[in-house]
Design brief:
alpha+beta, 8-stranded antiparallel sheet, 7-stranded antiparallel sheet, globular
Length: 362
């Protein structure tokens, strides 16, 4: 009897989130939908939306006039050429209670997630939810947006200004790409840089910050203004030296971060990624050139996870499943508009330099 009752219950957000941990993401089963309930968009309909085509959408399915989670009445399923699948639940909601309930369910399962203040408001601001539910807002950043990441999945909740009072719940699954484990034989980022740390450390120092731990200096961050920009992009460099003294020593760990006091265009970031991919190939996640949605993130001045390459001592991508390895160094490109913007990081630069010197001798 209990089993029969359970089968009659409507699917919940908890059911759907839990399904993301199962093999091959059985989202239709978790939503208790049959394939026959899905309407297929024609190829001509997909082509009529250039934005979808540009980001690689090749199939769209729709479920309409169906209740989801006592809040939504429409589901759009978008399939991408990259293997990504995105579920988009939409509804015009003019009461605050269902919006708050959906948010609280997500928060209970996933925590607070990412917020994007001051560009967007947060779902913890119930007065903003009430205003939007009543069709009222004062400024553009009254729109509410939060994001959660679960491994290969991302969850987005957005209470919109346009269309006003529309609530969107989006759950995306990015198919896993196998990392390339071949030796990277095109050298290192040192091939691109004009200035060595020995030169940088003599340049004008913009500031320095000391980080202490247990009463002792753990590291010091020195920020310098470059005489000429690196890669025609970066005019600032930060040396993080894990020593109390301002000195360069290959036996002392050092990280380097390149950034700019000026905002970069999306085309400049695309070019930067292409240059680094030209040296290192696919990153830790098997990613190479930027994808259209990433370009949108950069253009919108949003957080961007970018690319990361972590190398073992054979100059292959580090494999976490092989315990006998050790990390040589890491290079990454990321974007954080609230900090240094687009930044090129080199962790354990001293070890990268040591590796490059060995290459030069071969």
């Amino acid at each position: 009897m209990a089993k029969q009752l359970n089968s009659m219950l409507s699917p919940t957000i908890v059911d759907l989130i839990h399904s993301t941990f199962l093999p091959n993401w059985p989202y239709l089963e978790s939503l208790k939908l049959k394939p026959s309930q899905l309407l297929e968009a024609s190829y001509d309909m997909i082509l009529s939306n250039p934005g979808d085509v540009a980001i690689g959408i090749n199939r769209v399915q729709v479920v309409i006039d169906h209740d989801f989670f006592n809040a939504f009445n429409c589901l759009v399923i978008k399939h991408f050429t990259s293997g990504q699948t995105t579920l988009m639940f939409n509804a015009q909601i003019n009461r605050a209670e269902p919006v708050i309930d959906i948010y609280n369910q997500l928060k209970d399962i996933l925590g607070n997630g990412w917020t994007f203040e001051p560009k967007f408001s947060t779902f913890s601001e119930e007065e903003k939810i009430n205003s939007l539910a009543n069709g009222q807002f004062k400024q553009a950043n009254d729109e509410i947006l939060q994001v959660w990441n679960i491994g290969q999945f991302s969850v987005l909740l957005n209470y919109k200004l346009d269309p006003l009072s529309q609530l969107l719940l989006s759950i995306s699954h990015q198919s896993k790409k196998e990392p390339d484990r071949h030796v990277r034989a095109n050298g290192t980022l040192l091939n691109l840089l004009k200035f060595s740390p020995e030169q940088v450390i003599t340049m004008p120092e913009v500031k320095h910050e000391v980080k202490e731990e247990n009463g002792a200096v753990k590291y010091v961050d020195y920020t310098f203004q470059l005489e000429e920009s690196e890669m025609n992009l970066f005019d600032r460099v930060r040396l993080r030296i894990f020593d109390a003294e301002k000195k360069l020593d290959l036996s002392v760990q050092m990280h380097i971060s390149y950034f700019s006091e000026f905002e970069m265009s999306a085309s400049q970031v695309i070019s930067l990624v292409n240059i680094v991919v030209g040296i290192y190939g696919a990153d830790n996640s098997g990613m190479k050139e930027m994808e259209p949605h990433e370009v949108d993130q950069v253009e919108a001045d949003e957080m961007w996870s970018g690319r990361s390459w972590t190398f073992n001592r054979a100059h292959k991508i580090y494999d976490h499943d092989e315990p006998d390895q050790s990390i040589l160094y890491q290079a990454s490109i990321t974007g954080n508009p609230d900090q240094d913007g687009i930044i090129l990081n080199i962790l354990a630069y001293n070890q990268m330099l040591d590796f490059q010197e060995v290459l030069n001798e071969v």
